[in-house]
Specification:
242 residues; 10 helices
Length: 242
């Protein structure tokens, strides 16, 4: 299977699977699900490629059901670690300075996503790169009810971990997918980052609208101030004397 390079060769899903096998897949899923350094890893395309390779018996020779179960476990445990890390670190995470592997902007995006969607964000974030890494941590920082978190964590882990892998296995039997796998992987990456693009454009539009409203309010205050400083007109003076 020839895949299109979507970045460094060491981030290419097939290269990772060929080099590290099932253990590597589980380590990447775990890291991307709850470790701060895992946000750049190719989660969606990796799971899709995993399912495809299992269905064609390439590199991976374990039963599909076992691969799915192990991936779900790795995803759920990763989120649990992220949640516990968030509870322990707390607000200090929001004061951490930027570095090559940590951007405060990513934490803020995940926090906004969590505030907007509440508990269901634990499930939805699974399908959004970068956000899925930081959301369980934000849930811990926000002291989300642990039982609620575990429930949504398991649901999200199953839907994402097993769902994307099974999708890859099902489509892996289609000749068209094999012939155009590089474009399929590009499409998966584009679809996964689409929510981020939409939120970014929405935020820009909202900030632009707020800026216009602020300018209008300033103009009104300036106009009112000018009118207050003007001397009374002769007509208003004559009426006042009567």
């Amino acid at each position: 299977m020839n895949s299109l390079a979507l970045g460094p060769s060491w981030l290419d899903p097939e290269h990772l699977i060929e080099s590290f096998g099932l253990i590597g897949i589980l380590a990447i899923v775990f890291a991307e699900s709850g470790l701060l350094i895992g946000f750049f890893l190719p989660g969606d395309s990796l799971l899709f490629t995993t399912g495809l390779l299992v269905s064609t018996d390439q590199y991976l020779h374990s039963p599909l059901w076992l691969v799915c179960v192990l991936i779900v476990i790795a995803a759920v445990v990763g989120d649990q670690v992220g949640y516990l890390f968030g509870r322990k670190v707390g607000p200090a995470l929001f004061r951490r300075p930027d570095s090559r592997l940590f951007k405060q902007e990513n934490v803020e995006k995940a926090h906004e996503f969590f505030e907007k969607h509440g508990a269901k964000s634990i499930v939805l974030a699974r399908f959004v790169p970068i956000v899925r890494t930081f959301t369980p941590i934000i849930a811990g920082v926000s002291q989300m009810n642990y039982r609620t978190f575990v429930t949504f964590n398991v649901i999200g882990g199953v839907l994402w971990g097993a769902g994307v892998t099974l999708l890859g296995a099902a489509l892996g039997k289609v000749d068209f997918v094999h012939q155009n796998i590089e474009y399929i992987l590009v499409g998966i990456v584009l679809l996964s980052v689409l929510p981020i693009v939409i939120e970014y454009l929405r935020a820009r539009r909202s900030s632009g609208g707020n800026a216009d409203a602020t300018d209008a309010a300033r103009a009104q205050r300036a106009q009112a101030s000018d009118e207050g400083d003007r001397p009374a007109s002769p007509t208003r003076g004559r009426h006042a004397k009567r």
